[in-house]
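Table 4 source record.
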Amino acid sequence: FSATQAQIWLGGSLNADLNKEAKTFTIGPEVGYCFPETPFTVGFGVEYSGTFQQGEAYTHSLSLSPFFRYDICDIEDRFTPYIDLYSEIEVLDFSFFEIGLSPGVSFDLTEHWSAEFNYGFLGYQQEKLPDDAMNQNFGLSFATATGSFSLYYNF
C-alpha cells in the first residue's frame, strides 16, 4: 500500500506573504478521491485569503476550486507527475474566474503522507477590476505566483 494507491485524501496548503506594505495569508484545504485502478482523480478545494494593507481596510476572498487530475505515470512508486484540469471561482463578489491546465508532481513521503508541487498555468482567466471593467486573458504563465506546495494525508 502506498499513498498513490489511497482512494481518499485530505490536505491543502497554508501561505503567508509578509512585507512592509501588506501582510497576506491564505488557507486552502482540499479533499480528493482517486478512482481505483485508473490514473484519474477528482478533487475540491476551498481557499480563504486575507490581506492587511498598511493604511487601508482589511480585504478578503473566498474561492472554490474543483479539479480533475490525470496521473501521467508512476516513477519508482514514489513520484507521480500529473496534469490538473483546474477551475477557480471567487464566491464573495464573483470578481475572479479561471479554468485551465496546471502541471505538478506528487511524492509519497510515507505510507499515508504525500507532498505535491504545482507550477504553471495554461488557460483562461477573467477578473473584475475595481472600476467594474473586466480583464480577460488566455495564456501560459510560469510566474512564481502560480507555484504551490501542499501536504496530504491519504486514507
